Amino acid sequence: MALKAAGRTSLVDAVVDQLRAQLAGGEWTVGDRIPTEHELAEQLGVGRNTVREAVRVLVHAGLLESRQGNGTFVRSTADAAAVLRTVRAAGALDVLELRIALETEAARLAAARRDTHDLLRLRAALTTLREEGDRAADADLAFHRAVVEATHNAAFTEVYRFFSAQVHESLVESLGDHEMPAIDLDAHEALVAAIEAGQPDAAGAAVRELLRVPLETVRSIVAAR
Fold this sequence. Notes:
Number of strands: 2
Largest sheet: 2 strands, antiparallel
Strand content: under 5%
């Protein structure tokens, strides 16, 4: 499938999009070696340098893996960048509902697995949040990341790290909107106390309470609009 001639940057992007589509469509599976630069250049009707740059983009994205002397292999067919774009397009209500699901279970796991280092980090994050005020989106996100990392679940931590970019964007937008409530510092304190006490049910309930008012507020705003 030859691609239309265009500016160099847009042509690389077009090759990236085409290769992403082929990966998502199952043309190659995990572990497969993809065609050589020369073969891809002929198939797509572009130069080898363009293909090389596009492959580098996909290697950086974690979809492909270059092995010196052996070629390029499929590492993953799940396009994290595409998922992130979808999440970033989601509204504040969608983000809050997903936050509640993720953070409730994270709090439960943190209460069961936290160690001394986690507790010190949580207390430090809470202190920073109190010092910076109830509109400090950066401090609030750092606090919630500390809760998730206290799960000692690498997969959970990575998913939340991936998701937290949209959480941060949503926090910045919502906390800058005077229709949104300020951060409930006492509710954050209750969450830390439950994790410290090793009480998973109380920790999960604390997260739901912490996000209850923001969720109700966003629902009201969405309904009004």
